[in-house]
Amino acid sequence: MELLKELSIKEGIVSHLFEKVITPKKPNYIAKMALVGIGLEEHFDWQSILKNYSRAKSGLAKVLPKERFQLIASEEPIQTKEAIFTWLKDMQAQGIDGIIIYQASFIAGDLAATLARWLNQNKIPILSWSHDEETGGRLSNNRLCGQNFLLNILNSCGVKYSWLFESPEDNEFSSNILKFAKSVYVKASINQKSVGMVGGFRVPGFYDCELNELSLLNRFGIKIDRIDFDTIWQHGKKFKDSTIQEIRKELLNHPLCKFNNVTDQQIDKSIRLSLAMADYARLNDYLGIGLKNWPELFDHYGIAGDGAGALVQDLGIPVADESDMGALLTMILMNQISFEEAIPTLVDLSLINKSNNRIGFWHCGGAPTKLINSATGYEVRNHSILENFDVDSSMGMLLEFLHKQGSVTIAKYQYPDASRVMAWEGDILPSEMAFRGSYAEVEPRKNSAGDILSTVLNNGLDHHWIIGRGYLQKDLNELNHWLGIDNIEIEISKDHLYGHSN
């Protein structure tokens, strides 16, 4: 029984039933990563250069996941400006997404200048890669100085780059290569793709949930489809009542389900909405969905949509409550950079315990069931915030639970144009359910809870945050470099939970 519980959480409580009836997921994007060695036979040990380049190719091939990357490598190191230009034009024709330049030896300056000019005309991420060489006797390759020379020329020409000085056998080689490769993957995989804003726009008065649409397209390549509720509801009519009932039965009779006070009618409506959004997203190959879960769903459809969004998220499709575009963007970036392992979800920063160095994150009940703490289970509930006004008129379906423990990253790309981000790492620790809803208490990994809160309030940052699984900050920082996004530094709090605007 315990194994069954864990397996169902890992995949999502009812995801297997959804996958039987919705459009299949499209294959993953395959990023084309080019590798080119550069060197100079005239003054350096060519056999050593060839040997090390062969070693570099095989080392890189082992690191890049084949289900996400295609490695395209030059046969041998290139030596002249003419040859590098010819190779670059060939790579352009093949539609490469990123370049790794292996510094096989010192190089001719005009080769580097030709490379710089091409990179200024074709802005894709590049990594300069070199490593140490044998000592004693003659300097056979002069790789480090060659890398220095190359990057001086690139920098002088205003070319953005990353660099690495490690051999394939070094402990950090794999993680550093992947850090760069993931940025290449994210930029390429989201470019000219769309998100669906179900309900059309953000919820009323939530100004920080809107992003400048042209900024989103210009910086990230993401387009917005605005979808009215009637379109989604009509789309949901394709699903049989028997399918809806089977999903409801599975959800309510699961051994981890501890309580339900939502009517069958509201649960069925929620499931139908969830199926409709998931299928519509798959058909249109959306990166994610923004869900305007109030007031229309309350007033005209008689449900609270949070639980519907939760079940869509279980399928690997990010869903941002209250149509928060910055939150949705953050979820998409976390989802892509983790190869869909981050399971990002939207939360409010709702509790601070400075003495225990913890921050409590809460939201109504729209987190994916993959995040359920199996020790405490979940409840199917009416909306707790609506109950603050009137218990009898409240509605569902919401999924309330404690989040499972583990390492996390908290981040949000900020209103109004996502040109800034605040991100930090921590761990979800055991806690009580401070408030009904979906809840997690996080202990920051490096910063203090007081410093984080001071930074948020002093800078007047957005009121929604995204929790993603795993320590992702280094990967996000690399991505931010390539997207031209500023990191908001966490400040040191000078007083006990007191501050002022910056």
What does this structure look like?
This protein has 502 residues and is of the alpha/beta class. The chain folds into 2 domains: 31-189, Rossmann fold, CATH 3.40.50.10940; 191-487, L-fucose Isomerase, Chain A, domain 3 (Alpha-Beta Barrel). The protein has 17 helices and 19 strands. It has helices at 2-11, 15-21, 46-63, 81-94, 109-121, 143-156, 173-190, 213-220, 229-236, 241-253, 264-283, 296-299, 306-313, 325-337, 384-389, 449-458, 473-483, and strands at residues 31-38, 69-73, 98-103, 126-130, 162-165, 193-198, 222-227, 257-260, 289-291, 319-321, 345-353, 358-363, 378-381, 398-402, 406-413, 420-429, 438-444, 464-469, 486-487. It has a 6-stranded antiparallel barrel. It has a 5-stranded parallel β-sheet with strand order 2-1-3-4-5. The chain has a 4-stranded parallel β-sheet with strand order 7-6-9-10, with helices on both faces. Strand 11 (345-353) and strand 12 form a beta hairpin. The N and C termini lie far apart (54 Å). The mean pLDDT is 95. This is Fucose isomerase. Keywords: Carbohydrate metabolism, Isomerase. One of its GO terms (molecular function) is intramolecular oxidoreductase activity, interconverting aldoses and ketoses.
The radius of gyration over CA amounts to 25 Å
Number of helices: 17
**CATH topology label of the largest domain:** L-fucose Isomerase, Chain A, domain 3
In terms of per-residue confidence, which ranges show pLDDT below 50 for 5 or more consecutive residues?
none
CATH level-1 class of the largest domain: Alpha Beta
Distance between the termini: 54 Å
Strand content: 15-25%
- Strand count, sense and closure of the main sheet? 6 strands, antiparallel, barrel
* Secondary-structure class: alpha/beta
Average residue-wise pLDDT: 95
Q: Kindly state the number of beta strands.
A: 19
Shape: elongated
- CATH architectural arrangement of the largest domain: Alpha-Beta Barrel
Physical arrangement of strands within the biggest beta sheet: 11-12-17-16-15-18
Q: Residue share in helices?
A: 25-40%
| Total domain modules | 2
